[in-house]
Recover the amino acids of this structure.
């Protein structure tokens, strides 16, 4: 601007639109200076240091501000004190006017009685660092010292938002000290970016741009994303949740009822009181109830973000319930057959045990030949050829991890008495449960004279007897007992037993329910990883339950699928293998090496569902030096022209490398047709000649050491007449 009040053309063009501060990218030179005619400041700084022509803007804002101002305000020494037009800028949510003035600074003013004082534009003492790096949740200090007379006004501006704060001011976490240093307490990732320090007085303005980088690492929960955990009713369970990240994440559990429980020292407690979170993030549930089952979420959070995993908790609380009467008295005819039933339900599945009158204990599928006793898998006690010695009190017990239940049957044996009309004297209970794929057995014993004929009507309204059956799975024995193998859900329904002779009929209606259950692998949470010694044996169990019985298959680390059926096919075709899959689902490997390391997945599947379990196998290598076993072979004699073999069986870990040295002290190469080195280290020499005689050395090496063995070969030469 000229001394006559005219406006410089360049400046005139600048103030025709709202002035702004151009955002300086982080990749540009840090030495670049950005100047402004007036910095924006908060209104809370000390009034004594606020110039009368300055209107501040807030430094801390919930909304980004508009572009800041970029214009240079150099003061000409010849200019007169003429105020410049007001320039307005808009910030969200604040709208403030910014006004600058040009006082008369064309010469040094001298007040009466005073000497001349040198005055001029302020200058920032530059920082040695243009970029400051701090860790999240620590304090950061950005220096900005300035010189000038009169004392310049200092303020800091965050370039990204345009918010400003003046010297000697503190707002929340931000404070500018008297020396101009900006302190940011408990830095957060959002605090990173460029900060502009501005100093000014009536002679001009100076600025410095600094960049601050806040280091942080996103939280990560180390446990699997989804887990299933089971606990017994009234028991205790601990669920781990380990979180890593920077700054240290805060662990919070969300219960199935949406209650939030945070980790605290020594632990946090939920309103339920029996649910606690330890300082390491572990969730503990004491005396679990049915209301505790559901999905639990663990959240690890910090200023850098959040991560979450979920855990499904199941509470098993079904005590055994025996389906038959608790006490029963039954009388059977001497020489007949007895079926005493004892089926039970519960979770876990109850185990059935029988105790005979003389104290013999029997379990499912156990047969006592001397007594003609058998317990079927469904718990039914079978006795044939009844006699007086079978009479007495029989006790059935069903137990699981929750409770136990008992049933007693008092059996009486009576002598066989003839009767005229057909009469059913013994039958199975009116309701019988049978597992899918199992064997159904229904008793129907009748007496009469002549001997009655037993006829069964199935749920499909078809008739079967001892002479005829429409289904090969169904058979009726001469005593009237009906059996069905490989039961399916179509076998459910009402079965009618009819006893018939020429004197009359008798019948009984029996109900059969087929129990089904989807495949499920038991105790998956204990099988996440397994370690085996190199060269040792690997055994991984995969116990599955389900109705019908699930089929078990394994996926090896190389993607090969194996199961007991494929295993039998492999054997029938003569292929060699080192693994065995047993019928119970157990996978077995011998002589484990590094190729066996990796993830093994067990699959259990039936018609109702599929379940899987993954086990990570790690092979632990233990080194041992080579050791040649058969050093007693020191001299070998062979006739001229024959084939000679020299043994060199060695052990060691890792597997040693076998090298043979000839009598001429040269390494024997298997590539020569005359020599052959077998896998077990044996050297074979074809068509032995005289020059083949001498000392042969077997050397066995690995990284743990070496061993050697020397064998002398004598070539025997006989005359043609021998």
């Amino acid at each position: 601007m000229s001394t006559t009040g005219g406006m410089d053309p360049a400046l005139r063009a600048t103030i025709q639109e709202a002035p702004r501060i151009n955002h300086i990218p982080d990749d540009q030179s840090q030495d670049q200076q950005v100047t402004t005619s007036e910095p924006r400041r908060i209104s809370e700084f000390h009034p004594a240091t606020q110039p009368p022509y300055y209107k501040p803007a807030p430094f801390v804002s919930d909304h980004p501000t508009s572009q800041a101002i970029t214009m240079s305000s150099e003061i000409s020494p010849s200019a007169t004190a003429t105020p410049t037009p007001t320039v307005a800028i808009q910030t969200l949510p604040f709208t403030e006017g910014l006004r600058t003035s040009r006082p008369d600074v064309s010469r040094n003013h001298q007040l009466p009685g005073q000497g001349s004082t040198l005055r001029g534009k302020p200058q920032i003492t530059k920082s040695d660092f243009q970029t400051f790096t701090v860790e999240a949740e620590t304090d950061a200090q950005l220096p900005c010292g300035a010189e000038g007379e009169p004392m310049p006004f200092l303020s800091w501006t965050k370039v990204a938002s345009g918010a400003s704060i003046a010297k000697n001011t503190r707002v929340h976490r931000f404070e500018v000290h008297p020396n101009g240093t900006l302190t940011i307490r408990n830095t957060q990732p959002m605090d990173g970016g460029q900060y502009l320090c501005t100093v000014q007085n009536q002679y001009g303005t100076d600025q410095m741009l600094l960049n601050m980088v806040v280091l942080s690492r996103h939280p990560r929960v180390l446990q699997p994303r989804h887990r299933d955990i089971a606990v017994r009713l009234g028991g205790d369970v601990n669920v781990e949740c380990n979180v890593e990240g920077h700054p240290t994440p805060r662990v919070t559990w969300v219960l199935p009822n949406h209650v939030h429980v945070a980790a605290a020292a020594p632990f946090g407690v939920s309103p339920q009181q029996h649910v606690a979170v330890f300082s390491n993030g572990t969730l503990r549930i004491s005396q679990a109830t049915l209301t505790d089952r559901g999905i639990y979420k663990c959240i690890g959070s910090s200023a850098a973000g959040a991560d979450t995993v979920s855990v499904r908790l199941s509470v098993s609380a079904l005590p055994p319930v025996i389906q038959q009467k608790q006490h029963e008295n039954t009388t059977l005819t001497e020489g007949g057959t007895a079926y005493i039933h004892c089926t039970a339900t519960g979770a876990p599945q109850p185990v059935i045990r029988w105790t005979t009158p003389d104290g013999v204990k029997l379990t499912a599928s156990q047969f006592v030949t001397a007594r003609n006793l058998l317990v079927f898998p469904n718990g039914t006690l079978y006795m044939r050829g009844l006699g007086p010695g079978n009479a007495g009190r029989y006790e059935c017990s069903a137990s699981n991890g929750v409770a136990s239940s008992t049933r007693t049957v008092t059996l009486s044996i009576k002598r066989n008495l003839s009767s005229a009309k057909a009469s059913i004297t013994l039958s199975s209970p009116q309701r019988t449960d049978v597992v899918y794929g199992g064997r159904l057995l229904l008793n129907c014993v009748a007496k009469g004279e002549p001997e009655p004929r037993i006829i069964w009507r199935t749920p499909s309204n078809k008739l079967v007897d001892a002479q005829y059956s429409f289904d090969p799975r169904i058979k009726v024995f001469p005593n009237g007992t009906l059996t069905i193998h490989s039961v399916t859900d179509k076998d459910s329904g009402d079965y009618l037993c009819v006893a018939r002779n020429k004197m009359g009929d008798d019948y009984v209606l029996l109900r059969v329910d087929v129990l089904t259950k989807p495949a499920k692998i038991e105790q998956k949470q204990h099988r996440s990883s397994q370690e085996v010694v190199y060269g040792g044996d690997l055994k991984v169990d995969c116990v599955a339950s389900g109705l019908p019985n699930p089929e078990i298959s394994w996926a090896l680390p190389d993607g090969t699928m194996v199961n007991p059926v494929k295993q039998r096919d492999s054997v029938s075709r003569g292929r060699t293998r080192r693994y065995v899959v047993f019928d119970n689902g157990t996978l077995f490997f011998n002589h484990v090496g590094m190729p066996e390391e990796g993830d093994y997945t067990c699959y259990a599947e039936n018609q109702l569902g599929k379940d899987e379990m993954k086990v990570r196998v790690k092979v632990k290598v233990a080194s041992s030096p080579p050791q040649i076993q058969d050093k007693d072979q020191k001299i070998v004699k062979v006739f001229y022209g024959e084939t000679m073999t020299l043994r060199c069986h060695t052990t060691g870990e890792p597997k040693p490398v076998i090298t043979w040295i000839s009598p001429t002290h040269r390494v024997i190469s298997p590539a020569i047709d005359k020599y052959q080195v077998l896998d077990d280290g044996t050297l074979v020499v074809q068509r032995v000649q005289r020059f083949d005689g001498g000392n042969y050395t077997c050397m066995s090496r690995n990284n743990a050491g070496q061993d050697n063995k020397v064998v002398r070969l004598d070539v025997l030469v006989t005359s043609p007449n021998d």
